[in-house]
Specification:
The complex is a heterotrimer. The N and C termini of chain A lie far apart (57 Å). In chain A, the strands form two sheets. Chain A has an eight-stranded mixed β-sheet, with helices on both faces. A four-stranded antiparallel β-sheet of chain A has the order 2-1-4-5, covered by helices on one side. In chain A, 32% of the residues lie in helices and 21% in strands. The chains are: A alpha/beta, B mainly alpha, C alpha/beta. The interface between A and C is large, with 42 and 42 residues.
Amino acid sequence: MSAQLKPQRHGAPLVIADVHKRFTQGRQVSHILRGCSLTIGAGEIVALVGESGSGKSTLARTIMKLYTPDEGQLLFAGEDVTHAKGRALSAYRERVQMVFQDPFASLNPAHSIRTILRRSLPPSARRYSERQREALFDEVLTQVGLAPASNFLQQFPHELSGGQRQRVALARSLAGRPDLVLADEPVSMLDVSLRLGVLNLMLSLNEQYGIGYLYITHDLASARYVASRIAVMYAGEIVEEGPSDVIVEQAQHPYTQLLVQAAPDPSRRGLDQLDESVFTGEPPDLSRDIQGCPFQFRCQHVMDQCHVSSPPLRDIGGGQKVKCFLE
Amino acid sequence: MSTDAQGVAAHTPPSPPTGAEIKRTKRKKSLPLLSAFKNAKAITGLCIIAIFVLMAFFAPLIAHDNPTAEIYALNQAPSVTHWLGTNSLGQDIFSQIVYGSRISLEVAFAAGVIATLISLVVGVTAGYLRGGVDHVLSWITNLFLVIPSLPLVIVLSSYIQFRGEWPIIAVIALTGWAWSARSLRAQTLSIRERDYVLHARLVGQPWWSVVAGELLPNMASLVLSGLLFSMIGALLTEAGLDFLGLGNVDVISWGTMLYWAQNNEALLNGLWWWFIPPGVAIALFGGALALLNFSLDEITNPRLRKRKVKIRAKG
Amino acid sequence: MQRDEQVTFSVQDVSVSYPTVRGWVQAVRNVDLQIRKGELVGLAGESGSGKSTLVLAATRVLRAPAVKVTGRVEIMGQDVFAWSDKELRAQRWQTFSFVTQSAMNALNPVMRVRAQMHDAMRAHDANYSKVKGDKRCEEVLRIVEVPAAKLDSYPHQLSGGQRQRVVIALALLLLPQLVIMDEPTTALDVVAQREIIALIRRLQRELGFAVLLITHDLSLLLEVADSVTVMYGGRVMESGTSHQLLQGASHPYSRALIHSFPPLHGAMQRQEGIPGTPPDMLNPPTGCPFAARCTLATQECSDSMPPLMRYGEHQVACHKVSAADTQGVML
């Protein structure tokens, strides 16, 4: 049956090149994205880690083309989609989908799961016969662990648990056979014991279908678990990126080091107490122009240079890049 | 799979609950309409409304007398021949009530529906499109809100020549849509930001599909409530206008009955069977609509079904 | 139960149930909990475990007829349920106080910070005077490291982190012996969370109050709390010092929960969460509530609730765990 449906692709790369985004409210201009560059390879899982206010949600929305970049480019499968409209935009959105954070708000409470899946079908799938559609729904629900599908299709969102709702969200994005899924904190609102189930599901969908993921989170541990590469975002910039293990064990940027230290680590118990004085300060106010490195106000290793100019993104080998003046 | 000391096979972890298991612990999904029949308020309201509607529809079969014929004995109290007696003009009051319901119901339903439609279009458009469109529509809504409706209706009615009920229906609808529009706009603004609406837009749903498919089902309770509210308002306004003599006084409606009763000093003459029945009819029908309104939330939102729980209050 | 002068908060065999349209929900069943002076005790559990209900009912925030509570609760040795309403009001905030979930939204948006603090003091401090109140406001903001000028601000004029600190300051106004924090850092980023936890521990050292920290983040508790109690399905599954639980948590649920947090360092391997979903508290299963999801469960587990076995400070309620296991021998 599924042979008659759209064949599975093997992902396509997304390149974000020096993207800027400003928002104007009255006379105040907030520079939210301040030169973000990131590449997500075909079928790769990349994690985007940052605090709230770092701009990660704005970046996600810009990738989804809800916002258009003020500067910079978005390249998908080699094509420039920065200003895509109309049919090109539809085609792009069919291949790049989004999964939201709040399982209680991402499914329409007035619709059954079947309706939700049906309404999520991309334009190209809308001409399927009813039999093909049912087969597709059956397939995607089973893939996400909601079997037998027939029982779930007629249920309503409020009858499912948070974990099950996120699985439905993944199922509906799967129905369109996307190349890339943006998962914006998909497990932070779930119970702890359910999180790994959903994360493992993402991993298996990646293995099986070659779907790439941009996993947005503030939890470094789960980022390492799921992603092969981690990008760290601060104040609208990507300050460090590299292979997951390298980022965690050999973080070069002071902010990344801060994140690593801040993560709960039971094995730290009984050893030397953390120097808790490093955990001070707040992200900068992005409505004001920042001269120099945005982390200068919180950095333990700040130098004169940092107040004057913003450091460039340096490639330090092994796939790791850092935006810092420190050697 | 290991076994413990007693040789009983250890329990393998069950797979995530299947739909079958879930069904067992959850009550069956019931259709909203069916649940209406279980709600006492809704049943009462619907029954009363049904009685009036049937009465209006089958008027000729129910009332044998011509409501306008002034051929009967004057001022007769209720009796077997005239169930609600006769008035000072020699008309049978029962048949007046029965035929009069047609006007009142017609205006209530029509004006209510039209007002709701206007408020839906204005409110949802303003809330969904926001920006300049919203500014203009909100300004218009506020304008209509501020205009005192009864005086406006009175003034308009005095100028309009009456041919049938439609002028009055139009006037009532035009003065009554603004309040609903505001609340619909507010709810649209709120729902519009939800993730599922955003998702619908992202997967390429056209705007009308987003509005009709994603927004409206979640606003059903508010729309229905607004509709019932408008109907009650239309009923009372129409009765008021007729009572003031601003309607066509030669047509029989509950309001005109009150007008004629007033004109012929029915109260002073103790002809209670002339003015009480139309008053009761208006109150009953309006009350039935209100009852239905109260029960609405419980019907459209399956999670809010109320049931009595006996609690022994202890410290 | 021996009445220990050092015991700040004592919950003895407390059960809490509340009525719903479908019947009585047994949210908490036979829970024991002790907090000693100056301790940081963690209460871990997922949604539906009953941890919040337990604490709200034990402090009489939830009242009859909304809930039915059995058992005994003592604060500073006094029977909480014996207090009259007047006494309860006096004890609130003086003896114990709350920092709630989504603390940032717990501040009244139309009142200045100073006014909210005075409000709290006026309600609970018999010796309240405006002058003393003002002085206390300044003191308390100082210890949470928020500039005193912020006293005359509205909540929306403060940053998120400052609002969080103000709520903590509010809780400390009358120098209580016990501060109960219900998921205070759940909505925060890891750095902000670390800041708040560091602040709380510093304040504990300075002021000597005990803290009951309720959260689902077991890994955080294992790092910072003195002792941890793990709840599931309204019951205590395991409790002990963090050290004991780290060495070898014995209860299958605790172990599975600990393994639900992918480690930051060390070997990367595929981990499993816990399959299934929490039990229906309307018809709680007879026997152990975790039996349906447990890899070790047998018929015995579904039939009867395992008793809470005490091995010194370490307590476990599981049929499959013996004394030997709690000494650190892994199952």
